[in-house]
Structure formats: C-alpha cells, structure tokens
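Why does residue order matter? Because the sequence determines the fold. Keep that principle in mind as you read this record.
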Amino acid sequence: MTHRFPIRVYYEDTDLAGIVYYANYLKFIERGRTEFVRERGIDQAALRRETGIVFAVRRVEADYFLSARFDDALTVETEIEQVKGASLVMRQRVLRGEVLLFAAHVVLVAITEAGKATKLPADIRRLLA
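Structure:
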C-alpha cells in the first residue's frame, strides 16, 4: 500500500533562490512517515506512554533528482518495504505531479527511552505489515 501525503512548499522551506533547501526533504518525508503510521492506527504518543517505545531513524539513503520551488504542490509517497522484529524499512518519494524530485530508503528502529533497540509489539508489527 502506498500512502500519499500532500505538502505545499512555503517560503521558509527554500533558500535565497526559491529552491527547497536539501535538508527540508528529510522533514517532508518525516511528515509523510508520521501520517502513514497514524493512518495505520498507531498513536506514537500512546506507544511511548504505554510501552516506552519510540521510533528513531537509523539510516537514510537519499537521492535528489530535481528541485522543488516555492509554492509547489508536492506529494510524499511512503511504502513499507520490510517489517522486522525491531526495525522497519521504508521507501519514500517526493513528487511534483508525476515528476520524481527526491527518493529515500529509510531504516527505522524501535528504541526504548534509554536509546536501546527493542522488539516492536506484535500488534504494531501487524498494523505496519
């Protein structure tokens, strides 16, 4: 299943040339992942409160293809590639219409508040699979 999340490029997202600053794509895909998880019925605040588990980015491989500009309407696409015991692998893309601007391969790990990797509860893994 591909989750789609719309984003508008604001002035604050751009550099002096009106082009999206490269690090802001990471913010865009973070928002896409958050909404993907929320849509799957996972309340991350409750997960932390009830189990002490939070998600942390372990690795990001990013490819920049074309620039987004001020006022562009973009779509962040998010897909789960793999759900493991304590981690998730996701593919994400940022598009302007049908044009691919940015793609990322993201590995998330479930950690305790102390920062130690921990197994995801079975019900959470099922919601993500």
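Residues 3-128 form a domain with the Thiol Ester Dehydrase; Chain A fold (CATH 3.10.129.10).
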